[in-house]
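Lab meeting, item 3. Inverse folding demo.
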């Protein structure tokens, strides 16, 4: 069985931290180590961590940042300290199902080509009341570079350690236009899905707690961030699409830089990276076309949306397209005459 590390980033998390730590101690397959990076907590977080360290049934290492880094860079520090053959992201306020690590580690053990396991979650409120289930509804397996636009959210991911060795966290690009889909966990998942196989599990292995102190606002936060910025311009949705186009183009450039690493790993990784780069470039181009359409007048805009549809810009998200929801949005909101 492979060794498993858990990477946790903390900051003023005392309110919900203890139940999460207890869920780690109750895992059917205990982690080999818990690596915690604290971002300068001023509440009881450090005391709770120290108490848990003394009684935990596995090694616990806690470091404290000299300056406040923010949650994304804080996770990079925690990940950089992990030594396991598999690494699981761990939020400070969730609760893990007791078979989370056992299920994910067994998949990574069975096939060394698997770079990433992504499972479903149950979203709950601060009192653990059910909100919704989120994640894949059935088991799926993807070869390198064929996973499309996955919801790559840290607390749902267990990544193979070989990915972090070939692409160390310290080398990752900084965050882009906002949190959410282009955060550090998304970048790690993007790299893993480009270089190796991805397994999607329908099992809801985490109670993901949503409350007013969450560090990130989940998968819609990029849209919300850009929307706030875009209110200052004349064509807010055009600005939103342009920002997405820029982000996908930026990611394609960074993925291009991984070609030497892919060559080291093998032929499947090389081909997977090529597919991933091409998918990011297509997304950048399609969002740029969409932005350009919103800059046009009413009649020309409708023609542009039709051309984009013929090009395949609205194919499914799993096929690296924008999806039918985007088409519906453009045909309704996008075709309203300007006042």
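The presenter then showed the designed sequence:
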């Amino acid at each position: 069985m492979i060794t498993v590390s858990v990477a946790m980033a903390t900051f003023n998390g005392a309110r919900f931290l203890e139940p999460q730590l207890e869920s780690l101690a109750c895992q059917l397959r205990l982690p080999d180590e818990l690596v915690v990076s604290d971002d300068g907590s001023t509440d009881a977080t450090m005391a709770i961590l120290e108490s848990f360290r003394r009684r935990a049934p596995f090694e616990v290492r806690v470091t404290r940042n000299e300056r406040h880094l923010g949650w994304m860079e804080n996770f990079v520090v925690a990940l950089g300290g992990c030594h396991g053959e598999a690494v699981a992201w761990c939020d400070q306020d969730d609760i893990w199902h007791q078979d989370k690590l056992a299920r994910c580690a067994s998949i990574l053990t069975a096939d060394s080509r698997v770079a990433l396991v992504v499972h479903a979650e149950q979203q709950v409120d601060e009192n653990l009341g059910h909100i919704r289930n989120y994640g894949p509804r059935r088991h799926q397996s993807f070869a390198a570079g064929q996973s499309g636009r996955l919801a790559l959210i840290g607390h749902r991911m267990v990544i193979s350690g070989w990915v972090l060795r070939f692409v160390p966290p310290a080398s990752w690009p900084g965050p882009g236009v906002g949190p959410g889909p282009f955060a550090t966990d998304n970048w790690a998942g993007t790299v893993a899905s480009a270089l190796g196989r991805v397994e999607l599990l329908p099992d809801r292995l985490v109670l993901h707690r949503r409350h007013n102190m969450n560090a990130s606002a989940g998968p819609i936060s990029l849209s919300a961030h850009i929307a706030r910025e875009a209110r200052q311009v004349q064509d807010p949705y055009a600005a939103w699409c342009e920002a997405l186009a820029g982000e996908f183009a930026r990611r394609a450039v960074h993925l291009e830089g991984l070609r030497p690493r892919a060559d080291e790993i093998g032929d499947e990784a090389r081909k997977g990276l090529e597919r991933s780069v091409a998918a990011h470039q297509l997304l950048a181009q399609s969002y740029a076309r969409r932005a350009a359409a919103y800059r046009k007048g009413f009649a020309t805009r409708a023609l542009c949306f039709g051309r984009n549809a013929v090009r395949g810009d609205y194919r499914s998200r799993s096929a690296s397209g924008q999806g039918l929801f985007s088409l519906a949005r453009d045909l309704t909101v996008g075709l309203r005459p300007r006042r």
